[in-house]
């Protein structure tokens, strides 16, 4: 089974429209695809009538939260798109995102970058605004030489534009996903640069508040990291998920479906997805 259970479209900070993403997934041989845009499910509306090319589609989302002072992402899989409490939660999260965008723009203004909010908003094109939209604006207006530099200097962890305390706590986010009948997955744990003890504490707390899986594979990562995450999964009774976190074509480290196979012994998260095996 080639399952890619984490990727983004233009409905959030991805480059491809949902239909084009679906086509690309089919071309890459993906059999099961979850689109997991940041704080929105708008991408699915466009796919109602789309030809899936044999790809089985799972409704998903990626929520932002924080835990012990660190930004953490949680993916929700197989969520009921008609769930009213989920719709309210998404609305709240988007309002938070809009407020946060204002705060980011204020902080960038203090560094000498005027009017970045209008620029980021234009680039987002009606989608919820995220730091990648600010990064692109800074790049396009000559403030930085690359997206990477924008994150390194102004938007990444610990930098002025890293506004993270506005998000609801972990148990709230997991509760939203569970209430919508979904499976909560701890996203890209390898990217948090945590010690084993800290990651274990996070995985334990995540499971205790209703989380059910952890991304054992996310994009390109070392075999060592994969083993480490598989171990944490089994220690905490969590299922294993996998995804590319694809945003943009032309980044070989995050191509749809290209991240290898889950290690033996992992219980794949698709066992938990209704109607799928
Ligand atoms: P936000 O949703 O506003 O918190 O922004 C987080 C998003 O920024 C992530 O989902 C990535 O798409 C992107 N991102 C984070 N760090 C980097 C980086 N160093 N270079 C490029 N994109 C990044
Ligand atoms: Mn993103
Ligand atoms: Mn993420
Ligand atoms: Mn993501």
Can you tell me about this structure?
- This protein is α/β, with parallel strands linked by helices.
- It is built from eight helices and seven strands, in the order E-H-E-E-E-H-H-H-H-H-E-H-E-H-E.
- The protein has helices at residues 18-27, 84-110, 116-124, 131-140, 147-155, 170-179, 196-208, 223-235, and strands at residues 3-4, 32-35, 56-67, 70-77, 183-186, 213-218, 239-243.
- The protein has a seven-stranded mixed β-sheet.
- Helix 7 (196-208) links the parallel strand 5 and strand 6 (213-218).
- Helix 3 (116-124) packs across helix 4 (131-140) and helix 4 (131-140) packs across helix 5.
- 47% of the residues are buried.
- The site of adenosine monophosphate has 11 residues, from helix 4 and helix 5.
In a few lines, what is going on in this structure?
The protein has 277 residues and is of the alpha/beta class. It has helices at residues 18-27, 84-110, 116-124, 131-140, 147-155, 170-179, 196-208, 223-235; strands at residues 3-4, 32-35, 56-67, 70-77, 183-186, 213-218, 239-243. Helix 3 (116-124) packs across helix 4.
Features:
seven-stranded mixed β-sheet, binds adenosine monophosphate, 277 residues, 7 strands, binds manganese (II) ion
Enumerate how many helices there are, as a single number: 8
* Helix/strand structural class: alpha/beta
Rg (C-alpha, Å): 18 Å
Task: Note the main sheet.
Answer: 7 strands, mixed
Which spans have pLDDT < 50 for at least 5 consecutive residues?
none
Count of distinct strands: 7
**Ligand list:** adenosine monophosphate, manganese (II) ion
Helix residue percentage: 25-40%
- Mean model confidence by pLDDT: 95
The span between the termini is 9 Å
What global shape is seen? globular
Strand coverage percent: 5-15%
Q: Order of strands in the sheet with the most strands?
A: 1-2-3-4-5-6-7
SSE sequence, one letter per element: EHEEEHHHHHEHEHE
